[in-house]
Amino acid sequence: MMRLYYQAFSKLIKVDRLALTPHQYWIAAGKGMERPYTGEYWFNQEVGTYHCQHCDNQLFSFDSKYKSTTGYAQFWNHIPNSVKLEESNIKEERDLCCAGCDSFVGKVSFDGPPPTFIKYSINSAALNFKLKSFQEDPYFRKIARKEKEAQRQKKVEHNYLESNSNL
């Protein structure tokens, strides 16, 4: 019996057990799901990216996160080549693992929102959130670009009026 237990966790050798809390190790190696509404990121509305807690591989972007009704951090899309699906003992769901370190991060079901209709239910203990700076946010970058263009246009108009007033 102990040998089977060891074989189940031996493929996750890339996860350093000493660097993790017991709860994080239970999720990463034991494929556990945390209790709903207890994770740190299930209601996070910040702008940034979600990385693997263990290998710092970028997994999800804030653009694909949506409001959770299950108590987990939920996404409708992932960063390409960052995660891989594994078979699960539940027919409607699959296990989702990090492509970098094979650690378990959550479950995938195929009843999500459009456009992909895929729902990624992710454990907050398996994620590390990195906040984007103000300048990196595409929305604010677009606003800053418009403001800069308006200032440039005013400067051009001012110079044009000054040159015509001298005549």
UniProtKB/TrEMBL annotation:
Protein location: Cytoplasm, Cytoskeleton; Nucleus
Gene Ontology molecular function: any one: metal ion binding
PROSITE patterns in the cross-refs: MSRB
Xref: InterPro entries: Met_Sox_Rdtase_MsrB, Met_Sox_Rdtase_MsrB_dom, Mss4-like_sf
Listed cofactors: Zn(2+)
GO BP terms in the entry: innate immune response; protein repair; response to oxidative stress
Keywords: Cytoplasm, Cytoskeleton, Immunity, Innate immunity, Metal-binding, Nucleus, Oxidoreductase, Selenocysteine, Zinc
Pfam family, one: SelR
GO cellular component, one term: nucleus
Listed Gene3D superfamilies: Peptide methionine sulfoxide reductase
SUPFAM superfamilies: Mss4-like (SSF51316)
Keyword Cell cycle appears in the UniProt entry: no
Function: Methionine-sulfoxide reductase that specifically reduces methionine (R)-sulfoxide back to methionine. While in many cases, methionine oxidation is the result of random oxidation following oxidative stress, methionine oxidation is also a post-translational modification that takes place on specific residue. Acts as a regulator of actin assembly by reducing methionine (R)-sulfoxide mediated by MICALs (MICAL1, MICAL2 or MICAL3) on actin, thereby promoting filament repolymerization. Plays a role in innate immunity by reducing oxidized actin, leading to actin repolymerization in macrophages.
Entry similarity comment: Belongs to the MsrB Met sulfoxide reductase family.
Protein's name according to its UniProt entry: MsrB domain-containing protein
Organism: Paramecium tetraurelia
Organism placement in taxonomy: Eukaryota, Sar, Alveolata, Ciliophora, Intramacronucleata
